[in-house]
Design a protein that fits this description.
- By secondary structure, the protein is of the alpha+beta class.
- The protein has a domain of 67 residues.
- The protein has 3 helices and 7 strands.
- Strands 1, 2, 3, 4 and 5 form a 5-stranded antiparallel β-sheet that branches. Strands 6-7 form a two-stranded antiparallel sheet.
């Protein structure tokens, strides 16, 4: 049998096509970049301002803890507290949940009044806890060994 050899031009072209394809694929993959401390500081400032403005509360306080969801969700969640502005609310305190969309750079808020109790310490009466702790349970006694 005779070996069929490809022409020299096609033998040189194949590695070049492979290299060009590889470069195009690698160029399309975004490089992972870590945010600088300055970028995090700016993001924190933007999030706080957007959540405070979206809440429309009087003297809003954007709490320090933030739940940073991964990039597939692209949201940060924070609690905002303050006082309701409408006169008929008579200065009632408000708790709002703020979701900040990192891509759109905007915040949406929802009343989260029920969450206030979740962070409050338990009520107590006369210095004693309102809920009595259960009594400790003694470990079971070991059975005596059986004799043969």
């Amino acid at each position: 049998m005779t070996e069929v050899r490809r022409p020299l031009a096609s033998r040189i072209r194949a590695p070049r096509i492979l290299a060009a394809t590889l470069a195009a694929v690698l160029g399309a993959v975004p490089a992972a970049q870590a945010s600088s401390p300055a970028a995090w500081t700016q993001h924190e400032k933007d999030t706080r301002q957007a959540c405070a403005a979206a809440s429309e509360l009087k003297d809003p306080v954007v709490h320090a803890y933030v739940a940073l969801f991964d990039d597939s969700v692209g949201m940060d969640a924070r609690l905002v507290t303050g006082t309701w502005k409408p006169a008929h609310m008579k200065g009632a305190k408000a708790v709002m949940l703020c979701l900040y969309d990192r891509k759109a750079r905007r915040a949406v808020v929802q009343d989260a009044e029920g969450w206030r109790d979740a962070f409050a310490p338990p009520a107590s009466t006369a210095g004693k806890p309102a809920v009595k702790a259960p009594a400790p349970v003694a470990p079971p006694k070991a059975a005596p060994p059986k004799s043969p």
